[in-house]
Design a protein that fits this description.
mainly alpha
Length: 193
Amino acid sequence: MRRLAAWTLNLLLPYGGVGLFTLAFCESSFFPIPPDVLLIALAIADNKASFLLASIATAGSVLGGAFGYLLGRSGARPILKRLISEDKMLTVEHYYKKYDIWAVGIAGFTPIPYKIFTVSAGIFGINFTRFFIVSFFSRGARFFLVATVIYFFGPAIRMMLTRYLNLFTLFLVLLLVGGFILLNWLNKRRIRC
């Protein structure tokens, strides 16, 4: 996987924003390398362009996610079965039944392979408008988080981002979910009183 990531980076880095858009689009529907690697490299090379690059990554990712959704709607269940095991397919289906569109939001922000959730959202018939909106905000939040860190800390943060981005985003999601659960619990408790 590292060799594929290095090859992808070397191939697309010279194309700047166009390469980033292409990678973000492909990753959201079928390609295994996340655009974060290219976003980090491009933003560190020109940290003043960090937010523009995050916008490009968001646009590519959301449109690629829409393409993945359309693949799912057009009968891509056999394709998804080739990408993931039956157990994982059942797990994804369980998350959709339990959390509906929030499954897309969590997958869009975390290191969970987003393409699995874009294609499966189409397969399981999630409302497209809601899917698109949640994709926009979750993917945008992920890429703008990276852009903000690079904008303010520049090249000094590169190694930390490369190593710990997945852990950091997972921590933020757990914090958000924990906050949501706490607010829900407090609200139920207040209603009972």
